[in-house]
Amino acid sequence: MEREREQIAGLYIHIPFCRSKCYYCDFYSIQYDDALADKYIDALISEFFSVCEQFQNLYFDTVYLGGGTPSLLSHRLLSKLLGAIFNSNRLKENCEISIESNPAKGEFYKQCADLKINRLSIGIQSLSDSILNLIGRGHNAREAIQALEIAGKYFDNINADIIIGIPSQTKLDIENTLGLIMPFTKHISAYILKLSDESPMGKKARCSQMHLPSDDLVADMYELAYDKLSMYGFNRYEISNFSVANYFSRHNMKYWACWNTIGIGAAAHSFFNGVRFSNASDINRYMLGESFLTTYDKTLIPDKKELLFEEIMLGLRLESGLDVLSINKKFGIDFLSRFSSVIDRLKGIAEYKDGRYKILSSKMLLESAVAVEFLD
Questions:
Q1: Does this chain's domain 7-257 share its CATH topology with 304-372?
Q2: How far apart are CA 248 and CA 238, in angstroms?
Q3: How far apart are CA 256 and CA 239, in angstroms?
Q4: Model pLDDT, residue 54
Q5: In 3-state terms, what secondary structure has residue 319?
Q6: So what's the pLDDT on residue 293?
Q7: pTM strictly above 0.85
């Protein structure tokens, strides 16, 4: 019998615990509890091995622990989880292993390095204490800088998250924050604030109890961030993501390129063999078994029209844009012919060049409006 072809995917592990919920956040998270965390890690390990048993030739070249707040896990639990994954022999050589962290104290970063985690993402968000207080973060600017200093002793590959478009935020805030964090990082994610109606800040904005900055001011702050990061060698490779050479996030690139990713844990999302699905967004239901193998239906036929739009939408977020030849081959179309009228309408905003269709660098904030043009 012919050997089944090896499949490569990224592994996302959702850690849903937080000390408290940030006021802008609408991701699934719950209050941290030691006993519950213990049971949850067991459930994660069980789900991981169930996936491995179901897909005998599946291997992972990236692992990403996100949340929630993975840095709340004790060394014992983190070691137990990662030890099980390492011992599975399902990780490829030079696997990128990332963990998200709030600014942490003590031995956390050393412990992560000892556990073979090789990429760190720290949620800085701002280095203005008044803004950190406004958005409900549990650290101040001094603690954030101290965390970066400590992490730098153990990690070469460090990302810092910042948020653009917070009420009362100014261009000077953005400039100061970037100036202070760039010396410690090789990657910076600069996200424009998007509020769901159900988040605390979203509810206040909806009731006019909180006033968001104008779109023009947000665009100005983003352009300032882009210019400053570019000046110091951080190249934008995706709308919100900047890195020095060779330090892009290999795991997150899988999402934008529509490559296989498997998510384990409560509320984790997956994209596998053209099918999107997710685990139960409730830790108790998840631990009772509503997870990957109960939601993945191998007989489900993907909607190719929907997949094509997703690939275009996500690819347009990349500075390099879409690989037209790859899309033609994957979907059996002639991209330039099928979307000729759209391409004509978007002249001056996007262009086809050297086999790729991309939004002009100066127009990247129009990505959502550009993507909608490809709905057909």
A1: no
A2: 9
A3: 11
A4: 87
A5: coil
A6: 65
A7: yes
The Cα 201–Cα 308 span in angstroms is: 34
Supply the pLDDT for residue 206. 87
Which pairing describes strands 356-359 and 322-323: parallel, antiparallel, or unpaired? antiparallel
CATH for 7-257?
Answer: 3.80.30.20
The CATH class, in words, for 304-372 is mainly alpha
| pLDDT at res. 237 | 98
Comparing CA positions, the residue from 293, 311, 306 lying closest to residue 255 is: 311
Please name the residues in contact with 215: beta carbons below 8 A apart, sequence gap of 6 or more: none
What is the C-alpha to C-alpha distance for residues 267 and 45, in angstroms, rounded to an integer? 16
Phi/psi of residue 107, nearest 5 degrees: -95, 5
CA–CA distance, 253 with 255 (Å, rounded to integer): 5
Burial label for 290, CB within 10 Å (0-12, 13-18, 19+), is middle
Domain locations along the chain: 7-257, 304-372
Please tell me the total number of residues recorded for the chain in this structure: 376
Low-confidence ranges of the chain (pLDDT < 70): 1-4, 292-301
> Strand, coil or helix: what is 288?
coil
